[in-house]
Amino acid sequence: MLSDQIARMIEQMLDERGGSLELQRNELAQSLGCVPSQISYVITSRFTPERGYLIESRRGGGGHIRIVRKKMHRDEYLMHFFYAIGKRLEDREARAYLVNLLDNDVITEREAVIITNAASDAALGSIAPEGRAIVRADIFKRILLSLMQ
Amino acid sequence: MLSDQIARMIEQMLDERGGSLELQRNELAQSLGCVPSQISYVITSRFTPERGYLIESRRGGGGHIRIVRKKMHRDEYLMHFFYAIGKRLEDREARAYLVNLLDNDVITEREAVIITNAASDAALGSIAPEGRAIVRADIFKRILLSLMQ
DNA sequence: TGACTTTGACTTTCCCTGACTTTCATTTTA
DNA sequence: TAAAATGAAAGTCAGGGAAAGTCAAAGTCA
Fold first, then answer.
1. Contact (CB, 8 A) for B140 and B89
2. CB A145 within 8 A of CB A54
3. How many whole angstroms separate alpha carbon A116 and alpha carbon A108?
4. Which H or E run contains A68?
């Protein structure tokens, strides 16, 4: 399959370059004889943050796509919480999680403060009350993922 | 890329002169072999207030462009940003702010990562796209406030 | 059948240029 | 000497080109 081939190629380039690389979408597509958006598809479907990759890009002349492989020595703590959080997360629960993470030196106090505020009802005030717990859960998961490196 | 080169050159001059400088657009363009409006483009796209620069200029004979890199202290910085953020905050703007806060040692890299993720479109995925910038602005302001203490 | 792939048309972003406009200081003119 | 002309800057804007992003439709495979 084309996608697999592209993914393998990118993996190999990452290996050669110690985990990060910059590529040009059109160029790579050209050399593989595929359509440029195929490259986009592979990157968005395979090189996701969940699987430990960071993507950034720039459009326009001389643009590029940058892929970085995060060294995921999986912190089981974070994983544990990640999977423990369901579709919704109430303010109270969130605070409990943070205390736990703080107690276990997974985050600093300042970081806890930041996260508390980011996910506070106050910050999410423009969202309908029923929706807040959902957004809060998403924010939390996103942060936990970002801390797993 | 020409723009990057020009931006680097200006940054370097700023470093050498302790954070502020006066340049002549035509002269600089000449020495770089580019069109004068290219300099304007770089200045308006890269040396924005969001990134902590002040621009003033004068036309006519002996005119010039003055660039000042604002050096503020922690709380001033936070205050400045707090007031700069309006009702909405786009992803792109948010990142620019964070880079600035990071560069000025107001936040750590990990904190920047946390905030980036907390306010990412991905984390706010359950909100309608038009609403995200509003929530993002709220989250940011909340976090900035929490850091001023 | 349903999830994943592939494609291509269209959109957005960014860079770069050049023509034209505005502003300011200096010089010339009435 | 006041007003007008001149010239030297910077500002603006539209347009073209290059690259990546998006999305829906069609195709494939388990």
1. yes
2. no
3. 12
4. strand A64-69
Write the DSSP symbol of residue A34: S
**Residues on chain B touching A134 (C-beta within 8 angstroms):** 126
Yes or no, beta carbons of B118 and A61 under 8 Å apart: no
Q: Which residue of A has its CA nearest to B106?
A: A110
List the pLDDT tens digit at each of the 149 positions of chain B. 999 999 999 999 998 998 999 999 999 999 999 999 999 999 999 999 888 899 999 999 889 999 999 877 778 778 878 888 888 888 888 888 898 888 888 899 889 989 988 988 888 888 887 788 899 999 999 999 888 86
How far is residue B116 from each of residues A41, A123, B11, B78, B110, measured CA to CA in Å?
24, 15, 25, 16, 10
Q: Tell if the CB–CB gap between B142 and A115 is shorter than 8 Å.
A: no
CB pairs under 8 A between A and B: 88
Residue B15 exposed, middle or buried by CB count within 10 Å (0-12, 13-18, 19+): exposed
User: Which of A98, A135, A140 would you mutate first to test chain B, the one with the most B CBs within 10 A?
Assistant: A135
Half-sphere exposure of B78 (CA within 13 A, CB side): 15
A126 with B122: Cβ contact below 8 A: no
CB A91 within 8 A of CB A120: yes
Residues of A in contact with B143 (CB under 8 A): 114, 117-118, 123
Q: Whole-angstrom Cα distance, residue A17 to residue A9?
A: 12
Chain B partners of A49 at a C-beta cutoff of 8 Å?
122
Q: Which residue of A has its CA nearest to B134?
A: A126
Burial class of residue B32, CB neighbours in 10 A (0-12, 13-18, 19+): middle
